[in-house]
Amino acid sequence: MSSYSRIAAVTGGNKGVGLACVRQLALKYPQSSLNNGPFLIYLTARNQERGEKALNDILQDLQLKEAKALQKDGGLSDVKYLPLDIDSQDSIKSFAATLKKEHPEGIDILLNNAGVALDGFDASVVKKTLHCNYYGTMEAVNQILPQIKDGGRIVNVASIAGTLDSKYAAPIRQRFLDAQKTDEITALMEEFTTAVEKNQYEGTWPGAAYKVSKAGVIGMTKTLAMDNARTGSKTLINSCCPGYVNTDMTKGRGAKTPDEGAQTPVLLALGDIEGSNANFWYNGKITPWER
């Protein structure tokens, strides 16, 4: 048995919103209704050097030190680094195996923040974007969900860009909305890829790989959450948008700070969200998927 009462893992935790989520989890856990003792947060990153640097930044963080949030300063939270590249099935499987070995009793929170936003638009960009943002996130959830304690939380960071607007043909939008199984969302991702490969996407799909990948994440989260709830599980699975955050991904153009961007993901991980499941959240509240 682990010496920790609660355990969380944050993917893509070495910078930007992911690193801010690690900080905010450590800061907000003591006031959370989930607080029932020592809290371990795994900061994950695909690059060991950057991951360990981020961990060192967290351990030396002045706000955390002043709040006495970390165990080394007398607080409840501990942060450790583990490698994880959600673009690699082998890496995801290795990470899941490590969690199972270290915490056979299970973990409480998976916050999936890792993702990419690539420049350009062609079949190659679409495949790379979907491989990481959609398929990678889905694989991480599928591998780690069996290890989430009943009543735990999974948070998938999507984007308001993933809402269903007029860039999609009406029948495509309806298929997203009507989907009951994750396979139906995956089929839509495959159709989008094929349409771009054949240059037959205009008038049916948006010409934006990131936008469609995040629609996929919202749809996958919704269908997987509904399917999981049908088993009687009390685990809450939601997606969210952190907002337009000033990070590398937005090339420094975002209006929000990373800490502001972390607010909604951390709310879904630790907050009293009235049993929300299968929903998409934006600016701290449930938001319609279609607009």
- The count of domains is 1
What level of helicity do the residues show? 40-55%
Q: Globular, elongated, flat, extended or rod-shaped: what is the shape? A: globular
Number of strands: 8
Number of helices: 10
The CATH topology is given as Rossmann fold
H and E string:
EHEHHEHEHEHHHEHHEE
Catalogue the unreliable spans.
none
Family: Belongs to the short-chain dehydrogenases/reductases (SDR) family.
Pfam families: adh_short
Organism: Lithohypha guttulata
Keywords: NADP, Oxidoreductase
What does the model show?
This protein has 291 residues and is an alpha/beta fold. It has one domain: Rossmann fold (3-Layer(aba) Sandwich), CATH 3.40.50.720. It is built from ten helices and eight strands. The protein has an eight-stranded mixed sheet with strand order 3-2-1-4-5-6-7-8, sandwiched between helices. β4, α5 and β5 form a beta-alpha-beta unit. α1 crosses α10 and α5 runs parallel beside α8. The longest helix has 22 residues. The protein starts with 5 loop residues before the first strand and ends in a 5-residue tail after the last strand.
